[in-house]
Amino acid sequence: MALSREEVAARYGAAMFGYAKDMKVLDSVQEELQALKEAVNENPTIIRVLSNPILNSIEKKKILSEIEKDFSNEVQSFLNLLLDYDRFSDLVEIIDCYSDLYDQEKSIAAGVATTAVKLDEDQLKRLGDSYASKYHLKSLRLKNQVDPSIIGGVILQVKDRVIDGSVKNKLKKIRAQLVEDN
């Protein structure tokens, strides 16, 4: 029975996480994998070439050796393992799984702050720090999404928790209360 893409990502991501933790290189591997993910997202041809069944393994190893030369031995070994087991097409999902495990280990969360106007980095950091403190996290990485329709305030979404402090939501609640009172 073939494994689903999610099962493959979970197994390989967990294996890489366990290995990096044993070797005490969680942080450096996380940085390298994020850099690799960014490079792959900018140039998806890398994955197509390294998972192409037409190319033989010698050609793929040559290509991979050029890509991985600046990475640590741990990441190089991992990338070669993916190539040997023909799992390179799952690389981004595997990196995401590793990142999720890393974030859990380090009490880090990621979220989206939706605002009517763009927030600067300092505002995002203060908002993230406030949330992290309230919910016992070491850190919260926030991306800013602009939606002028919320009028003002902020909608903060972290994992499955949504905190809606938008003016639009407050006006909606006031309207509902006025309709209820009549």
TrEMBL record:
<keyword id="KW-0472">Membrane</keyword>
<keyword id="KW-0139">CF(1)</keyword>
<dbReference type="InterPro" id="IPR026015">
    <property type="entry name" value="ATP_synth_OSCP/delta_N_sf"/>
</dbReference>
<dbReference type="GO" id="GO:0045259">
    <property type="term" value="C:proton-transporting ATP synthase complex"/>
</dbReference>
<comment type="function">
    <text>F(1)F(0) ATP synthase produces ATP from ADP in the presence of a proton or sodium gradient. F-type ATPases consist of two structural domains, F(1) containing the extramembraneous catalytic core and F(0) containing the membrane proton channel, linked together by a central stalk and a peripheral stalk. During catalysis, ATP synthesis in the catalytic domain of F(1) is coupled via a rotary mechanism of the central stalk subunits to proton translocation.</text>
</comment>
<dbReference type="Pfam" id="PF00213">
    <property type="entry name" value="OSCP"/>
</dbReference>
<comment type="similarity">
    <text>Belongs to the ATPase delta chain family.</text>
</comment>
<keyword id="KW-0406">Ion transport</keyword>
<keyword id="KW-0813">Transport</keyword>
<keyword id="KW-1003">Cell membrane</keyword>
<keyword id="KW-0066">ATP synthesis</keyword>
<comment type="function">
    <text>This protein is part of the stalk that links CF(0) to CF(1). It either transmits conformational changes from CF(0) to CF(1) or is implicated in proton conduction.</text>
</comment>
<dbReference type="GO" id="GO:0046933">
    <property type="term" value="F:proton-transporting ATP synthase activity, rotational mechanism"/>
</dbReference>
<protein>
    <recommendedName>
        <fullName>ATP synthase subunit delta</fullName>
    </recommendedName>
</protein>
<dbReference type="InterPro" id="IPR000711">
    <property type="entry name" value="ATPase_OSCP/dsu"/>
</dbReference>
<dbReference type="GO" id="GO:0005886">
    <property type="term" value="C:plasma membrane"/>
</dbReference>
<keyword id="KW-0375">Hydrogen ion transport</keyword>
